[in-house]
Amino acid sequence: MLVLTRKVGEKVLIGDGVWVIVNKISRNKISLGFEAPPGILIRRGEIVAKGSPNRNRKGQ
Description:
By secondary structure, this protein is mostly beta strands. The chain has one helix spanning 45-50; strands at residues 11-14, 18-25, 30-35. The longest helix has 6 residues, at 45-50.
């Protein structure tokens, strides 16, 4: 596992065109933004663990 330290506003590029942006940091939470091409599915870990079917990118 790669572990990085980032500040608010900093980005990390994953693969071809998937950006992860640190939006906000609070005591025990971090807010991340994701920019990806339309064909890339982005899902939260708890959704994947439940084995739910694929849906659109919003809210996943």
